[in-house]
Design a protein that fits this description.
alpha/beta; UDP-N-acetylmuramoyl-L-alanine:D-glutamate ligase; 12-stranded mixed sheet; 4-stranded mixed sheet; Tagatose/fructose_Pkinase; PfkB_dom; Ribokinase-like; ATP binding; transferase
């Protein structure tokens, strides 16, 4: 394992399946089978945990990115150029490349490679690096898909191992790893889970339309996550903002400021980063949600998988209410109290 010389940070992210994200700008709607002359292209280091790290670092907060990559991999070089602190586990296979096709109206199409297969020694080295840096962290983020070779319940295993570090744990994943995490019991439940509506529907075993069309059904599905041991649920709703629910029964909803969407890639990751930054600053739950939605909206207004700086984030433009979207409680609008 190679660790850069900078000290451990307050946030540690694990990106077990990182990627170089290549964004291709289409001049119009995708025309399958036709020759398309691109408006432009650019490549950025990515993967959900890496995106969180980039956004946290852009705000000036300390963060360590744990990931598998050779020292000479272009992924490592790109992250060094951004000034990120890395704890990298060397592997023989290059980091995968993911492709994003962006249309002028903001529609994005992603083509993701599976990533290199990690054997047991590589997985064990990643776990050791994660636990080492978690000992100095306030938050540990387990984010993204698992690479080929990792067991489906690896995130559940990591959550249990991380408990002894004292760091709080946030998880943002989907499909089989998400289902395995919640099936592993309360001892594997994270402090914060960040599903979108599709992932929430997967966990509840209902069609996505059931949670998007009926706020009460969405809240009931969120309640099942609390029953499984999850302390806080940050449910992202895309252009409709997000909902924050806590285990003590409090619920807030937030709508984003109006922005021109350029790319939604990484917007959810930036939302998670915004939430963590506000929490590190001691913000109340409503302002943690405000910061999350402001960061997600700012990300969506940027090209590719670019992450916003604090100067590009507009917390004051976010409307936060106590209660469900469209079903506020008598507390109505929640004023901002200085969240980042």
């Amino acid at each position: 394992m190679r660790t850069d010389s900078a000290p451990g940070g307050r946030v540690v992210t694990l990106t077990a399946n990182p990627s170089l994200d290549r964004t291709l700008d289409l001049p119009g709607p995708l025309d399958r089978g036709a020759v398309t002359r691109l408006g432009g292209s650019h490549t950025e280091p990515g993967g959900k945990g890496v995106n969180v790290s980039r956004a946290v670092a852009a705000a000036g907060a300390a963060v360590v990115s744990v990931l598998p990559a050779a020292d000479d991999d272009p992924m490592v070089s790109a992250l060094h150029e951004l000034g990120l602190t890395l704890a990298s586990v060397p592997i023989d296979t290059p980091v995968r490349t993911n492709y994003t096709l962006t249309e002028p109206d903001g529609t994005t199409t992603k083509l993701n490679e599976p990533g290199p297969r990690l054997d047991e020694p590589a997985l064990a080295a990643l776990q050791r690096a994660l636990l080492e840096h978690a000992a100095t962290a306030s938050w540990v983020v387990l984010s993204g898909s698992l690479p080929p070779g990792a067991p489906r319940d690896w995130y559940a295993t990591l959550v249990r191992a991380l408990r002894r570090t004292g760091a709080r744990i946030a998880v943002d994943t989907s499909e089989a790893p998400l289902l395995a995490l919640l099936a592993a019991g309360p001892e594997s439940a994270p402090d914060l889970l960040k599903p979108n509506t599709e992932e929430l529907a997967q966990l509840a075993g209902v069609p996505e339309e059931a949670v998007t069309a009926d706020p009460e059904a969405a809240l009931a599905a969120v309640a099942t996550l609390h029953q499984r041991g999850v302390a806080e649920v940050l449910l992202t709703l895309g252009a409709d903002g997000a909902v924050l629910s806590t285990a003590d029964g409090q619920v807030w909803s937030a709508r984003p400021p109006r922005v021109t969407v350029r790319s939604t890639v990484g917007a959810g990751d930036c939302s998670l980063a915004g939430y963590l930054l506000a929490d590190l600053a001691g913000a109340a739950p409503a302002d943690r949600l405000r910061s999350a939605v402001a960061y997600g909206a700012a990300s969506a207004a940027l090209p590719g998988s670019a992450v916003p700086t604090p100067a590009q984030v507009d917390p004051a433009g976010v409307t936060v209410t106590a209660g469900l979207p469209g079903h506020p409680t008598p507390a109505a609008a929640v004023p901002a109290t200085g969240a980042p």
